[in-house]
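We emphasize that the prediction below concerns an isolated chain of 511 residues; any contacts that depend on oligomerization or on bound cofactors are therefore not represented. The input was used exactly as deposited, without trimming of termini.
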Amino acid sequence: MGDSRTTTIGMLGTAGTVLTVEASFAAPASDHDRQVRVSGLADNIANQIQVRVRAAMANSALHFPHQSVTITISPAAHGLTGSAADLAVAVAIMSATGMVPAGRLTNAVLLAELGLDGSLRVVPGAFPAVTAARKAGFGTAIVAPDNAAEAALVAGMTVLAPSNLSGLAAWLHGQTELEPARRNPGTPAHPLPDFADLHARPRERRVLEVAAAGGHHLFLVGPPAAAKTALAERLPSILPPLSEAETVEVTALHSLRGRLIGGSTELIGHAPFEAPHHSMTAQALIGGGHSGGPGSLALAHRGVLFIDEAPEWRRHVLDTLLRPLERGEVLVRNANSTVRWPARCLLVLASTPCPCAPSPGTECRCSAGERRRYLGRLARPLLDRIDLHCEVDASSGVAQADWLELQSARSAAARVRRAREIAAARWRLTGESWRLNSDVPGQALRSARWRLPAKATKTADGLLRWERITVRGYDRILSIAWTLADLRAQAQPTSDDVDAAVELRLGYPIH
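Result of the prediction step, given as a token string:
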């Protein structure tokens, strides 16, 4: 008997930290002194781990020692939550008491919750945790069977998945061998909804292209059956495929939410789409809370967050989006740590124009005042961050030539990709990290280097002077104008681009 050491991974946001678990024993002076001390964890988490580990060892014919046990998990300030350290604690105890040899654990991390029967149970976030272990130089990860396919997505890692504590003990003794888990491609991913599924008019498709090309937030207003949801669902199909780094980042977020457990285990290489219900709480939307995981906003990172029936949402819930939309990340602070979730997404709001929401062919019963009050439920600061406003009606007519030309998302996606490349190359000259036109602050757009000629901004200048738009609105109009020019591969926006940007910003013609 003596000291023993194992390794696990603690997650704080999408960042994984290597945690060392050490176990030490001492002969007690009396039965009263026989106790377990756990340092490096919050008291409630430490107590839960003790209960699970004791029961799991007892039910696996691995008797918990009768000595005083001291367990330390370091670094202690990491703020570990959850049950992923269970297995590392149990094996540290077993190794320190001589129940199992530790030779096979030299280059391994242990990551699993223990059931009271000794089974290894799934934990969320196996993919980013094993990714962190690989970056730290580890070559083996021991996880629960239900986490095996997910962990096997990490290249260069040997993933072992014993079903229970007894099976792991037998492997440590060399009595059995564990077959390394292999990446399971699962079922083919469902194709993203395409424009070909939608009888939308070119005007609406054009608005989607502008939103996708420049990263501009969008507000769709129209009656029921006006295809607002269908439009939003098809926006990801024209966004560029995720880069390798973005794929890892997005997959990690969905892993932390437990979405890679029990389904098709594939890296997420396309723009995600999130459509939370209006009854959602602020914590579920932003993240944190009891689960401690990312919310819908972070899960929409590099994709689309669709807020349907926006006026029906509680105002304080939507107000929590303001700062994350500005920063591109969610900050969740507690007493011991700050969790950061990346959250760069396209926000799409949708609403009926009035509370009665008449069906097609039925007249609206609402007065002009009721209509204003209904849409007025949305806070002005939130609406000011929405670049594009589009009225959608239930009409589905479309010219045959237009339909043939734009029958799929392929041509639109190509235009979006080219426009983004043009914008990224331009803003790279500034030495900043801006990639999309929506990323560029107004101060830069109005600077001497990028200022548009007065004749081009005449309409927007007048609206600002007449206080029809805010300074933020003026800057967003300039941003949209650059996106329109990029979609046409023009070096600089013209007066027509700025005028069109004004109409897209206001949602109605200006002439």
